[in-house]
Amino acid sequence: MAAALVHRGPDSEGIHQRADVGFAVRRLKVIDLATGDQPIRSTCSGATIVYNGELYNYRELRQELVDRGHHFSTMSDTEVALHFYEEYGVGAFHRLNGIFAFAIDDPRTGSVVVARDHLGVKPLYYAEAKGGVVFASEPKALFASELVVRRVERSAMATYLTYGHATPDRTMYAGIIKLPAGMALTRTAAGISLHRYWDIVERARRWPRDAQLPTDELAALLEDAVARNMLSDVPVGAFLSGGIDSGLVTALMRRRTGQLHTYSVGFGLPSDETPHALEVARALGTEHTPVIVTPRDAADAIADVSVIYDEPFADEAAVPTYLMSRRARQDVTVVLTGEGGDELFGGYRRYAAEQAYGAARRLPPALLSIAGRTGLERVPALRRFGQTARALRETDRAARYSVWTETFHAEERTRLLGERADRDPYRVVQRFVPTRDAIRDDVIAMMVFELRTWLVDGYLEKVDKATMATSLEARVPLLDPRIVEFMALAPRHWRISGRDTKVLLRTVASRWVDRAVLRRPKQGFGPPIGLWLRTTLADRVDEMVAPSAALGDFVERGAARAIIDDFRRGAWRERQVWSLLMLSLWAERERAASALRAA
Predict the structure, then answer these.
(1) CATH 3.40.50.620 placement within the chain
(2) Distance CA 367, CA 185 (A)
(3) DSSP letters for 121-167
(4) Which one has a higher pLDDT value, 368 or 300?
(5) Into which CATH architecture does domain 3-198 fall?
(6) Whole-prediction pTM value?
(7) Residues 19-38: pLDDT tens digits?
(8) What is the pLDDT of residue 273?
(9) What is d(CA 446, CA 41) in angstroms, rounded to the nearest whole number?
(10) What is the CATH topology of the domain spanning 203-345+450-519?
(11) Which of 33, 375, 503, 598 has its CA 20 to 30 A from that of 384?
C-alpha cells in the first residue's frame, strides 16, 4: 500500500502495527524536516498518528497543549494534531485549521479514528473488508492491500456522464467510499461510526440585514490565511493566472517574502491567460515561469493523467495542471493556489444567471420548454442560451444546479447507457443541497451546494492529485475555514450584483491588486481540447469506438460514435468527446485488471 503512494511522499516511509491495526505512511517533508518523520507516537497516551497535509494553526495549539501538560518530542504539526485529539477528542476537530487526512490508533479505547479536513482538500477513501476497515489517500493503495475487491459500480456510470467525476461520497467502485469533507470515522470493536465535526451552514456566520460591507475584517482574514499557508521549511511558490483569485494570493505572498517563484500555463493561443499572468508577475516582482502546453504535450501526458485519478475524471484542466506541477516541482515543494474563490465569492457567470430563476418561473412553461431544447446547446453560438433556459425550467434545486455544469443531459445519457441508464442521477447529490428552511436564497444555496460537491470532487481533487503525482503540495488559502464561515451565508449582493461578480472580494483586493486585473473579465482555465481532439488525439478518438474497444463495456458504442461524428461536423461536443475519451482510457485499465484477476 505504501509503495502505491510513493509519489505522495517520496522522502520517507513509516510503518505502525499494533494487534489488528496497521498503518503505513509516505512522507513529503515540509515542516520539521529533522524530527517529523511518521508515524508519531504520543508519550502521554501511547496513541499513534499518520498524517497527510499541514496544520496551519499548530503553533498556537501546541502552546495551548503545553499549558495543559502535554509533552512533545518533535517540532512537527503532526504531533500537535495527535495531542489535540488526546485532549479534546473528535468533537473539537473543527478547531483544526489546515488541510489533512489523518488516522489515529488509540489503544486507550481500542479505536481507530480517521478524519478529513473541513473542505475536503485532501482525499481519503475507505472500504469495509474482512470485518475491518481499509483506508488510503487514493484507491490504488486500497487495491494494493488485496483486501478490497476491484469491482465497478455500474450505477455510478450515469453519475460520471452527468458530472464528469464521482460525487461526494461515491466512487466508481462498489464498496469504496470517499469520506466526506468535515467528517471523522471511528472504528471500534462494535463497528464503524461517522461524526460530522464541521458543516458549512451550521458554522456559517449569520449576518444582519443592515450589515455594512466588512472590507477590513475580510482583508485581515485573507492576510492571515495566506501567512499561515506559507508556513514551511521548504521552498514555497504560487500558481498564477491573470485572474483575481491567484493574483490576490500572490500579492499577499509577495508582501511576506523577498523572492517568489510563480507559474502559469498556456497553450500558444491568442486566448491564453499567459500574457495576463506575466503582466501580474512583473507588477509583483516574482520569478515567473510560463508553461506552454502543446497538442503533442497533451497527447503524451493523457495516459499519465488517466492513471493519476484512478477513476475516470473528465476535467480537461487536469492535463495542464499536471504539466505545470511537474515544472514547478523543479523549484519548489509547496504551491499556493486561488482555488475556491469563485464558489465562495461568486465568480461564475452561472450565479448571475441563477438570479433569473424567480422571474423565469413567471414565464409560460411552453416558452421555457422551447428555449431549453437541448439541441440548441450543440450550436456554439446558442450553447449558453440553451443551457440557461434548460436550467431555469427545473424546479428542483439539485436538478437545476446540476444542469449548469453537467456534461451529458438526460436524453444523451439514456442513449449512451441504454437500459442501464439511471433516470435520476441527481438524487446522489440531493442531500448536499441546502433546504429552503436553511437557505431561502437560491443563488446562495447554489454556492453552498457547489462548495460541498463540485469544488471537492472536481476542482480540489483535480489539483491535489495532479500536484501530488509530482510530489508537490498545493495549498488553498481562500478556503481557510474561517473565511468560508465568514462568507458562506453572506448577503448575495456582496458577491453577485446584476452582472457584477465578486463584489466584496474585488473591493478588498483593490488594496493589493492592480485595477486592470480586477476589471478583467473572467477567463476560464480550460485548454483547447477541441484542437487536441482533432489533431494529436484524433487517432485515440477513433480507437475508442472500434468494435473491440473497452469503452463498449460501459456505454453503447453506436451512441458514442454518433457524438463523435456530430463533434467532427462542428457541433459543440468537445467536452462530451473528452469525457468519453477519459472513460475509455479508464475502461481499458479495468479490462486489463479484470483479465489479470481471471488469470
Answers:
(1) 203-345+450-519
(2) 49
(3) -S--EEEEETTEEEEESSHHHHHHTTSS---B-GGGHHHHHHHSS--
(4) 300
(5) 4-Layer Sandwich (3.60)
(6) 0.95
(7) 999 999 999 999 999 999 99
(8) 83
(9) 43
(10) Rossmann fold (3.40.50)
(11) 503
